[in-house]
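User: Here's a structure from my thesis project, written as structure tokens. My advisor, Dr. K., wants to see whether a designed sequence matches the one we expressed. Can you design one independently, without my sequence as a hint?
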């Protein structure tokens, strides 16, 4: 059983997957995340759409009735790069035993504080996935959303994620595709025109195409089982899940071999 508070001292080690500049950026934004009408109002809607889809698909993949109140009961999930806990909390309320980890210390503190306010049954740890050797082969599901485009060493980061999975487990990656469309909408539009995110949040060169991601994860014995796009519709101000992978996408991978 994961304890409610699993935080521990953290330093960015030489050769780590962490990028110190990215950690500083997300530490600075930590206080804004849970404000419902704050700077990340649309990010909350974005997360709601993704969490609903992820929950439905995990229930289906693990043979759980989607209609039940707590469809993720009994699943052990780690949310890598959990930020202030938006996804971790939602999954914990659906019955999963959730551990959220993050490289930004302030994010973890904000997540812990919010969980105390809501009573969310979620644990947090201030750590990188490559610092979690004690948890190798522990989780049914490893989730990492909007993180791979910020790490210093993506292959090392992905290797660390796969080590956390049980044989037969599912890895869910959410990230940005490296396309002209994503550059226009996710950087020029979201950061510079609409101001949905602080300027400089993303580096388009670090975006990853779905097939590139699949190939980098396949070397660890995982296969892509499904992928979907996450798209914002300006006319309705709604996020939907569908076939368009050109900007944001979710990619599910299954561990096909034992450790």
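Assistant: Designed independently from the structure alone:
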């Amino acid at each position: 059983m994961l304890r409610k508070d699993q935080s521990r001292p953290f330093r960015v080690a030489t050769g780590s997957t962490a990028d110190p500049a990215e950690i500083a950026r997300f530490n600075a934004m930590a206080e804004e995340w849970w404000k419902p009408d704050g700077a990340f109002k649309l990010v909350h809607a974005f997360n709601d759409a993704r969490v609903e889809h992820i929950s439905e698909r995990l229930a289906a993949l693990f043979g759980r009735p989607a209609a039940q109140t707590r469809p993720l009961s009994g699943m052990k999930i780690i949310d890598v790069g959990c930020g202030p806990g938006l996804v971790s909390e939602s999954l914990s309320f659906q019955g999963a035993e959730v551990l959220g980890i993050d490289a930004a210390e302030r994010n973890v503190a904000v997540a812990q504080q919010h969980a105390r306010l809501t009573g969310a049954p979620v644990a947090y740890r201030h750590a990188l996935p490559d610092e979690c050797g004690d948890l190798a082969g522990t989780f049914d599901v490893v989730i990492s959303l909007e993180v791979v485009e910020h790490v210093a060493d993506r292959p090392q980061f992905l290797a660390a994620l796969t080590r956390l999975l049980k044989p037969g487990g599912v890895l869910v990656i959410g990230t940005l595709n490296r396309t002209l469309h994503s550059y226009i909408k996710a950087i020029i539009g979201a950061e510079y025109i609409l101001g949905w995110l602080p300027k400089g949040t993303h580096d388009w060169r670090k975006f990853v195409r779905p097939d590139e991601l699949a190939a980098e994860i396949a070397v660890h014995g995982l296969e892509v089982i499904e992928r979907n796009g996450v798209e914002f519709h300006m006319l309705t101000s709604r996020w939907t899940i569908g076939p368009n992978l050109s900007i944001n996408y979710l990619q599910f991978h299954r561990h096909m071999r034992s450790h």
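When you compare it with your expressed construct, this may help: The two ends are 22 Å apart (CA to CA).
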